[in-house]
Design brief:
Four copies of one chain form a homotetramer.
Chain A (H helix, E strand, L loop, with lengths): L3 H7 L6 H9 L9 E8 L2 E8 L2 H7 L4 E7 L8 H18 L7 E6 L10 H7 L5 H6 L10 E5 L4 H4 L3 H12 L3 E10 L8 E5 L18 H4 L3 E11 H15 L10 H10 L6 E5 L2 H20 L14
Parallel strand pairs in A: 4-5, 4-6, 6-8
Antiparallel strand pairs in A: 1-2, 2-3, 3-7, 7-8, 8-9
């Protein structure tokens, strides 16, 4: 079982804890020490909670200790009002479990990613649809209705646009704004195409270096920010190398070749085909624009409901600018 | 040698005549009747002209009779002022060979594609950087300097946004505006990753149904529009199925398997892996936003110089809004 | 009483029939032959219907024969979910009165204006939020639910961007698409600042030359398009000249000067102060971006409900891309 | 001479030192103690340097001690390549006089304003056209050519979008990035319509509270940021109140009324007419989108040339993303 080496060779991290766990457990479904997985089946979604509770689990998963809640909702890709509203509500409930209940909370929402590249624009798009209120507390308290918490929001851009590490910008703002908690939204890369546009991961661990479509170089988490960081991510792409490996392994299986072994030449051939752009090639559906639009709407709605108790599905759109 | 069947099975057309010719000729480099290929080597570009001059050639190439000029410039992907300016000038010269020299020409520029999806936004972005003058002829002739021709421009959007076939919109506008010639810009899909961001095809045949990233359903050509249509296209993606096939065939070669044969199971495995999104998955580099930005700049500059004799590299930026 | 001469001198038309009627009737409130005005008071809106029913009325009003329904809702400027939803519903009801009830209707929605200039971007923004279905009838009838009518949509841009008269583009598309009816959305100029952001006019007359913020040169109406055209417009600006005149006349009143007379020098002084930009200066609030965003949302919601009987306030957002 | 009271009453500051000086000096052209004005006439521009060198001058001008260089170039409003290039070069020269010559400088560029409101989008648009290099120093030094300095860039948004004071965001980033100097670009309000789109002010004082179209509440200057701040601003609007006062005073002059006196009722009438939107109404030309586009291009070009010695007019466009 040496498949992770392709990931290592190309410097690819699995963003979804669910997929990392699946890959580690392999065909035999063996238990991974220090990792627990719980499943909850709902009519239109499966919620899987992967908990990494020991350093050994963290090392094997290559992910920090913490809780990774994944909502899988294949029907999210179909535009159906009721299902999408259901997923927003589910996201809101799961988020609320991770956020202190105090009304006095100051929350910083951060939308990571590059607004100029559709698959990476999820974070900034969610920011554009969030109910921002922090300034009202200072300048127009009369515009506040009960049940609105203090929320501020930032889409810091990416290194290529600003010349500044995103984590540096956020850290600078955190030191001024002093929020109690941060919620970070980012586009992710999945291992499986099935999960594009249909999956939302909520992690109480923040964001590790090297994850996300835009590949953070520095983590955005309690350690770097000094406050709890909840990360919400959705796969919008699959790394091209990963999908190539998948097709090759499936083919070998069909041809009854190699019997689960994995000739090392595979990595070389893949690297070679992808060489003009290195690890940066991603696979994405043509409908990526409407998919990201819909994900942003579903996630923003869930976040707004979770953060502001007075926001309901029917009045939400009017709190937005 | 039955590889085209994957394309047929997934309804994929090769957009670049150069690649279709390469594929047809295969490893043996056999001549294709009715098709001629000429190469011109320049310091920073190779210009290949594929001419399809007989119906048999057209049938085999699955492309209309006509001239397909392809500029391959790998250095276009590096941001180097001198090389890019060189390619703009080269594009302008090649375009001028296809456009009548009359000053009295009325030209309609059309930018196909979806402005909301980065890899498909090339056409609209070129429109945003074109020197549009037709209204000055009617309303402000004093603002016209000699050497500006009458150019109007349209970015008609895509079916999913308007609910209208793009060709219908363009045809409607053509019947009102009565241009003498149309230049259409579109994002293409390549067979080879190498060609993403480094290749410009100029065809005097217009656009055939099923080509481009956004997949026109109806052709945009002399037949449907009643005027000559010059198509300028650049690959910004590769179909995921194509790249998968490439990696599999390379692997077989490395493993000395199948000796050039091609087990039909390949197509099934590929289709199966891609099935959640059908043929619509594409591979694209993460830097797609800056790549499309640069291509748009290079192409718009070439078009502006070709259409307006008085526009030069150094004064161009000031004619733009 | 010679105040209209300022409008004539600067080529300014009053876009709102309500204001044109008010101005004509003057302080004395005299009746205008061929014009009738009806008022309906609702809790959060006043609906005024001005009907021009004789050629003399049309000549005096400088507007075509027809019905002009104006919704005045000062609270629209406050972001209050319930009031805005109320106004969307009201707009939907008033629109439905002007649209045939047949399910088989083909409707073309047109968003006039310049997406690059915030106060003029209302039309394109409404298009971006409309439920477009025409292509589903042709390509994916299974995605259609009962109660969706065939709607297509176009944001044709402005003369300075395309080089083509907007009416030419629309007429070209109409001849291809053959809709039964057209709904056109545009940003208007008001006479009174009060009406910015708080007023919606629905007219069964289409759009006359010279109206709207972007000033159509050619009408978009039954005469030019060959089908009924319903125009929906909202003031987002006031002409600078108009507001200057207002302040001067108020000042004279306060100073008890001129007793209702109007020294002709006023027009010259105003023209002189505005001369660097001629009639093109407009007055607009700094919050214009969020105001236009909110108007677009309210109007798009009303239109979607009116055109698609199955769209309701609670499911609307999910039909949108 | 009590005209400033309108400004005070409405909380309006004159952004251009040139205009504040003009207003103070009044019709008599009296000297203001502690303020010096120097003029330089160039073929297509007048450069006026207002230096405030004593606390008394600062108090009277209601502006901090420092140097305010104003480029007035009426022809900037005409799209003429040569004139615009001339102004970019002039701006670059004037900027270089204020920036240390060291190659080792780290510079933070900040684009203030709201990207959603055209007249206030100047700052963010300049950021979008700046040559950003700081990340190359850290991650890709081989991509650096000699003559590029370390520049990073930020468009922090406005309070209504983020819920955070802009100065807080910038200060947070400054503390992380530790630049040696900051260059801030902002849209301004002028007193005179003539100056819209034709004027660039460069001040070594940074930005004071209450200035700019978006009205900073907190200063962005050496005092708040701890490093020198150079502010570049262009008027894109005139406050509606100011233009109303101008038209009234001109009218009185024409009518030979009040002989330079100023009946206090004027302020009340103006406030009353503007009351639906308070001081937030601004006057702006309809062509604001192309005007802001052109100003952004001219300013970005000047800044890029000033900051990066190796950037020249002819190669600039290729350093941009």
């Amino acid at each position: 079982m040496n498949s992770p080496s392709l990931y290592q060779q190309l410097g690819i991290n699995l963003d979804l804890a669910l997929e990392a766990h699946e890959l580690l457990r392999g065909a035999t479904g063996q238990e991974i020490p220090g990792v627990r997985e719980d499943k909850e089946e709902l009519p239109n979604a499966t919620v899987t909670t992967v908990t990494i509770f020991s350093p050994e689990g963290a090392r094997m998963m290559n992910k920090p200790l913490g809780k990774y809640i994944t909502i899988e909702a294949p029907n999210l890709r179909i535009i159906d009002p009721e299902i999408q509203s259901e997923i927003s509500n589910l996201l809101a409930r799961k988020l609320q479990e991770l956020i202190p209940t105090s009304e006095q909370l100051n929350i910083l929402l951060v939308g990571l990613g590059n607004w100029n590249a559709t698959p990476d624009a999820l974070g900034p798009k969610v920011i554009g649809q969030s109910v921002v209120t922090r300034h009202l507390y200072n300048y127009a308290p009369e515009a506040l209705t009960p049940g609105l918490r203090s929320v501020c929001a930032l889409a810091p851009g990416v290194l290529g646009i600003t010349g500044i590490e995103t984590a540096e910008i956020i850290r600078g703002v955190v030191e001024k704004v002093r929020p109690n908690i941060m919620v970070v939204v980012d586009a992710l890369a999945a291992k499986s195409i099935d999960r594009i546009g249909s999956t939302i991961q909520i992690a109480d661990t923040g964001i590790s270096p090297g994850s996300g479509v835009g590949n953070q170089r520095v983590g955005i988490n309690q350690e770097t920010m000094g406050i709890p960081v909840i990360a919400i991510g959705c796969p919008t792409v699959v790394h091209a190398a990963i999908i190539m490996e998948e097709v090759i392994l499936k083919l070998f299986q069909e041809l009854n070749m190699y019997q689960g072994l994995r000739p090392p030449i595979i990595n070389d051939v893949i690297s070679n085909v992808l060489s003009p752009f290195g690890g940066s090639l991603t696979v994405t559906p043509k409908e990526i624009d409407s998919m990201v639009e819909n994900l942003a709407k579903t996630i923003a709605r869930g976040i707004n409901q979770a953060l502001h108790p007075s926001v309901t599905p029917s009045n939400l759109s009017y709190y937005l600018q």
